[in-house]
Amino acid sequence: MSLNHLAFIIVVLLAILWFGLLVTEKWELVQIGQPLNRFDQPGIRWQGVWKEVFGQHRVLQERFSGMMHVMMFWGFFIVSIQTVIFFLNGLFPVIPIPTGLIGTILDTAFDITALFVLIAVMMAAYKRYVAKTPRLVRNWDAGLVLGLIALIILAQLSIESFQWALNPHMFWAPLGSVIGSWLHHFGHGFDQRGLQISIWVNALGLLGFLVYLPYSKHFHLFVAPFNIYFRNLDNKGHLPALNFDDDTVESYGIGQVADLTWKDLLDTYACVQCGRCTAVCPANQTGKTLSPKNIIVTLRKQLELVGPILNEAAASRTPEQQALLEVPLAGGVIPEQDLWACTTCSACVEVCPVYDEHVVKIVGMRRHLVLTQGEMPNEAQNVFRNMENQGNPWGLGVDARQQFAEAMGIKDVSRGDKPKVLYWMGCAATYDDRAKKVAEATVTLLKQAGVDVGVLGALEKCTGDSARRLGNEYLYQSLATENVETLNAADPEIILTTCPHCFNTIKNEYPDFGGHYTVKHHAEYLAELIAAGKLTPVKELDETLTYHDSCYLGRYNDIYDAPRDILQSVPGVQLKEMERSRDRSFCCGAGGGRMWLEEREGQRINQNRAQQALNTGATTIATACPFCLTMIRDGVQSLGQEQDVKVRDFSEILADAILPIVE
């Protein structure tokens, strides 16, 4: 065994050992997190890995960056074949380097791939350092990794070229043969030394890259496939419930990194820091300091700061270490204003290429603020008080729904009626005069179609959605438990809602409390009635519309087509899409309980969204949510366009096109 061979073996073993120790250290930190079952449905999980890792599905949703990453990923994947051959030959010289036809095929594939990878490196450098894309951080870490990638590719190309120069008949390669024929003129000794230098540059570059990964944000290259495999397969609109039955619990929500689940902590290492989440965040894009990316990055830094302390015995901790552990995540590590700025629209989660879950962490920290620290905005206190005392955020009486049932001539469960279709009015349609018109239009359409419909009347209370997403899980569970008892007693065939927040809560979250129902949003149900011929739009309206996708109807529940199908069924209606629509829609600003909070920082989100709608040139903006209706209407008014542009629920537009009821 030569000294060169021995040195190669030692360097490889040391690098692998170093990398293994670093990965073990990171895994021990991840294991600090709370238990969570993400090992179910392996078939679906592997399908996701194939689609997102090998198919680069989410990555490709941005054209320039997507093509760059695809070239980089598949380039490295193919280059890895050469890398395996390189290390096998270096460790075990008896294993020959492929020659002849096989060598030609492999080296030709490598040469083509090398060009694509180098182009991708230049694209990445241009995007980060020349174009200076705002969401990307310009630091030495990213530059170093790009440099290492280029070095590895050039070193392997150099090895190929020197091998050809020393033995032109071994194989043929598009680049290696051309460069090798030039190097051949420098003589055997020069080529031999060049080959040895290239081998060591390649080895040290590859092993250095391997060892550096755990220190860098590029550790995501190793972690991302695991994070995608363990992604959330539950309903997107479902939040985990807190257990209030354990009297020994003194802290609720996410107060420390140890309160996060192991998957939450894995998210922090999977984060690409690409900034896509922040670039689509409505709060950030309207001048708030909230950055979903920074929250994930900050959690990783905090994990690495206090994680080793948590893994030590409590008795051995110094006062300084104990002081670090007592700093809460919410308000201590992450500013309160950032947590309260979130609309829980889930745009960040939708675009994340590695399936990080931002919203559940933010809500978890809100829970700690409200339930453990007793900290919350003043407006939230008023809303909670109204929900506790009157069962609705407005703090108004319970007889309004009974009055609605009487006025509309429909059944009232609180007075002993039993309708087949139970219309869950929601608080907005009950207490807000504008939203009440949507309820009237919807019920009018249902009656026109001959639907046996009724309401809970005085028995209905707020679903608790806003309380839950504002962090008051205890209040939410109190309301949810009471509502489930009421609904189970009513036992309707279908529950119909006009509010996506009520729809999401009853459909996706009430099952945790024993409430299993068939729940439909009025967009779904009215579309079914039209398809069945029970409703037929006949009046031509001659309107140009744009439709605003509600976050809790669209991103959380994948209902995009039903409202559009209804609008396009109306004669004369022309539908124009906003630039940000469907799963890329921009929040109205009311989600996550923000409906009840003042917006004091930056531009108002609803004003920004209203401007996006106005840019289409539409004369009517259609919505499918009472909160969106209020926010978009206020946004249009703030821009001085209320005389020229109407904001209406799609059901009102449909009602205008349906023949009137003949009494």
Task: Give me a quick take on this structure.
The protein is mainly alpha-helical and 663 residues long. The protein is 56% helix and 5% strand. Helix 8 packs across helix 9.
Give the tags.
five-stranded parallel β-sheet, mainly alpha, 663 residues, four-stranded parallel β-sheet, Fumarate Reductase Cytochrome B subunit, 4 domains, Fumarate Reductase Iron-sulfur Protein, Chain B, domain 2, 56% helix, 28 helices
CATH fold type of the largest domain: Fumarate Reductase Cytochrome B subunit
β content, as a range?
under 5%
CATH architecture of the largest domain: Up-down Bundle
Separation, N- and C-terminal Cα atoms: 101 Å
How are strands sequenced across the largest beta sheet? Answer: 1-3-2-4-5
Protein structure class = mainly alpha
Quickly count the domains: 4
On the 0 to 100 scale, the average pLDDT is 93
Show unreliable segments: none
Strand count, sense and closure of the main sheet?
A: 5 strands, parallel
- Assign the CATH class of the largest domain: Mainly Alpha
Fraction of residues in helices?
Answer: 55-70%
Number of helices in the DSSP assignment: 28
Gross geometry: elongated
Number of strands: 9
The Rg value, from CA coordinates, equals 30 Å
Q: What this model shows, in words?
A:
One of its GO terms (molecular function) is 4 iron, 4 sulfur cluster binding. The N and C termini lie far apart (101 Å). The strands form two sheets. Strands 1-3-2-4-5 form a five-stranded parallel beta sheet, sandwiched between helices. Strands 7-6-8-9 form a four-stranded parallel beta sheet, sandwiched between helices. It has four domains: 37-229, Fumarate Reductase Cytochrome B subunit, CATH 1.20.950; 261-375, Fumarate Reductase Iron-sulfur Protein, Chain B, domain 2 (Orthogonal Bundle); 383-530, 3-Layer(aba) Sandwich (Rossmann fold); 531-657, Rossmann fold, CATH 3.40.50. It has helices at residues 3-30, 42-54, 63-91, 100-130, 140-166, 174-183, 188-212, 220-229, 262-270, 276-280, 292-310, 319-325, 329-333, 336-341, 347-351, 359-373, 378-390, 400-408, 426-431, 433-448, 465-469, 473-490, 500-509, 522-531, 561-568, 605-614, 626-638, 650-657; strands spanning 411-412, 421-424, 453-455, 494-497, 519-521, 544-547, 574-575, 620-623, 646-649. It has 663 residues and is mainly alpha-helical. 56% of the residues lie in helices and 5% in strands. The protein has 28 helices and nine strands.
